Amino acid sequence: MRFKGGVLAALAATAMTFGTSAVQAKELFLYNWANYFPPDLIEKFESETGIDVTLDVYDSNETMLAKLQAGAAGYDIVFPSGYMVDVMREEDLAMKIDTAELPNFKNVQSPHDSPSYDPSREYSAPYMWGTTGLAYDTAKAPELDETWEEYFKPRDELKGKIAALNDQVEMYNAAARYLGIDVCTEDPAQAQKILDLLMAQKPHLALYSSTGTIDRMVAGEVVMHHMWNGAAHRAKEQRESITYIYPKEGLAFWSDNMVVPKDAPNPENAKTFINWMMDPQNAAVATNYTGYMNAIAGSGEYLDESLKSDPAVNMPKEYADRLRPSKECSTAARELRDKVWTTLKK
Amino acid sequence: MSGRGGNPLWRFAGVRPAAALFFAYLYLPIVILIVLSFNANRTVTIWTGLTTDWYVEVLSNGDILRAARNSLIVAFSATFIATVAGTLAALGMARGRFRGEAAVNGVMGLPLVVPEIVTAVATLLFFILVGIKLGLLTVIIGHTVFCTPFAYLPIRARLEGMDPSLREAASDLYADAWRAFRRVTLPLLWPGILSGALLAFIISLDDFVITYFVAGAGATTLPVYIFGMIRIGVTPEVNALSSLMLLVSILFVSLSFLVQRQR
Amino acid sequence: MLAALRRSQLAQRTALLAPSLAIIGGFMVLPLILMAYVSILEKGTHGGVEWGTYSAEAYIKFLFERDLMGSLSVNADYLQIFLRSFVLSGVTVLLALAIGFPTALYIALQDDRWYRNLLVFMVTIPFWTNLLVRNYAWIILLRNNGLIDNAAAWLGLTQEPIDVLYTPFAIGVGLTYSFLPFMVLPIYASLEKLDLRLVEAAFDLGADRRRALARIVVPLALPGIIAGCILVFVPCLGAYVTPELLGGSKSLMIGNLIQNQFGAARNWPFGAALGFALLAIVLLAMMAYALRFRRAPGGGT
């Protein structure tokens, strides 16, 4: 009951705030990763608001950006990662929606209420967040230290049984952090050090791949995988002995956000949706489905037990200072990164 | 079939086992896939037990069904247009040599040669420049372009070295042309047309990159949906979905055979 | 009279070619011209391009490397990636031809037309599933402790794990698989008109199998073989999913390289330039081939 009342109040508030705007069709176009939004939550939203939702999907932040940059329109909400929110703002692709003014914004937990890429939450609202660390199978390896060293300079028994992400940003950044180099370095000498490390690691890797990571760990094809924490959690559900480590040198902390593109056809419906998603119960449904944490206070009580008890998802407090928010680098830094990646794999 | 008596198949003794091997190679992964679609484990590649849950889930997931429907609409439309255009072009090219033949050949092969991502971004920029609204139609246009050479080349190969007078007569555009075309040319070309159409169809059904870029809101197709699962991991739903697609293909093939037999 | 005939022939040919040329010309050539323009623009800070600001950097980058001082030196990295993709495509073509040709012949030699058509459909039915899904199926087959490994061990053929997944061999298996229909069907289409009496006569005249193949079957199939090779070789150059999933993605393919430029590297002009470099190489190769083919006796009509 409490919940229903909350939604009605939110809707009323939304209606009052935007009541003067032109009448919009009762539809909403979402643009997200596939399997990253629970279908039943869409149904719930539709039945509560009468707004018809259509979901389209993309496979990476970059292709989503490329498509918007080329001028594709028609989406009401996209779900970019933090650094991509930055890019979208600078490229004038995001609409100013003043998320902080929405009634349910009060539920947003720190630090998600004021991220570096949108400090006063004018353009974006938090969806899910996660980390990119290491997962390994404790049944097949000795206990490993919480350091990237286990990954970049593996022990003999792990050599050839490690899978890397096929993602130049994740790989480059992990190597940079291990070496204590700024991930956005513009110094070729430092980029060279990163390349040397990656080159030395390459012979010890079984493969680079960002797809099928969960399968690979569960099937025991590899013993260690550079992995997203939600994927590690799903792998653990299938194979108890898999554990996730937060390397002490720092690991990528990313967050996916809801952003309304500049030319969205139904911005008011988008705001209604965003406000609705900042309700604890709805956010919890999304977390239970995706296996990643949301940023909404009070959603904890609705979470599945398995999520609450897994340190991969429900991060123990002592690791908080190891998280490094993703950031957008300069053109020069990106060029160095791409050069390192191309040379690594030429 | 008469006129094919004295089949020399037995002369090429190695051909039959080679073909058997070929079909085994082709269907081995498909069998695996169908078996795994009944796998109770949420991880795609690890077997734990039998279930039909994934089928229930696919059939109740509106997004996946919509994507499958879009894929089929696009594949059938693009295949149809590309095959008609490809057949006409092959007939045109078969009427002797002419100046500019190399250029025409080059243009026909262009969609094969240009990397998909370049075509994709170029086509998207172009659509936006000329103000065509992105939707399912733009996907069909994009697919028709790259399907055309796939349909054209087998038909062209079929026509190569055929009796020119026969096909000249047949492809004549004069009075009785339509009947001549149906009675003479079409049966002659049929193996080429069937091959070309099938290739166009499967290349369309699998396309991700171009579809992704030129699709408008609401025009997600199956490959785009499946690639979008990369972050979360591909679920056995996809296997179930693939098995259902196989079922559709078998139904479609049976249907076309029934229709042919009736005639 | 003759001139009029020729004119009407020209009109007919134009009418027949028009739909295809309109489709490809309107929705491929025009966009590519736009892309050629993009390739000589300055890249945008976050991807995209600076419209109206010109730069030749993209083409210079393909062959040369700028050091810190801004001076140029030759850089063969990209050429090396191109070469690798060409070799891989070539191997795939050969494998597909070796497996596909006998099958096409087998199908073409069937007496029953319905059975022939059925087999043709059967060649394409597996491809109603998705590319990723088929590759996953191959992973299950090829990996250590996978089906083939276990079967071989059970039969006592192997003592050690087979270790084929994430090797070039696995890429070959996967790519050949993906492109088989594109080899089989064009060959079948040109072989189907094979006049069996001709083959039979050749045998009656004492030709052995090799000669019957070389003198009658292969020449007849040649247009199909060429079409098949083109349909396998060229699309294979851009393949990137199979090399990643089955090969472990330790080396880039042209497809990855170009994809990267529109993705993480966000360098559209360079991506476009790479695309045109590939286009130029393939077109040159085809032109050279066409010139040779034209001079050869009996080539073309």
Describe this structure in words.
The complex is a heterotrimer of chains A (346), B (263) and C (301). With 346 residues, chain A is α/β, with parallel strands linked by helices. Chain A folds into two domains: 2-129 and 255-308, D-Maltodextrin-Binding Protein, domain 2, CATH 3.40.190; 130-253 and 315-344, Periplasmic binding protein-like II (D-Maltodextrin-Binding Protein, domain 2), CATH 3.40.190.10. Helix content of chain A is 38%, strand content 17%. In chain A, strands 4, 5, 6, 7, 8, 9, 10 and 11 form an eight-stranded mixed beta sheet that branches. In chain A, strands 2-1-3 form a three-stranded parallel beta sheet. In chain A, strand 1, helix 2 (39-49) and strand 2 (52-57) form a beta-alpha-beta unit. Chain A is globular and about 60 Å long. Mean pLDDT of chain A is 90; it is low at 1-22. Chain B is globular. Helix content of chain B is 72%, strand content 0%. The model of chain B is unreliable at 1-5 (pLDDT under 50). Chain C has a domain at 88-251: MetI-like fold, CATH 1.10.3720.10. In chain C, the strands form two sheets. A two-stranded antiparallel ribbon of chain C has the order 1-2. Chain C has a two-stranded antiparallel ribbon with strand order 3-4. Classes of the chains: A alpha/beta (346), B mainly alpha (263), C mainly alpha (301).
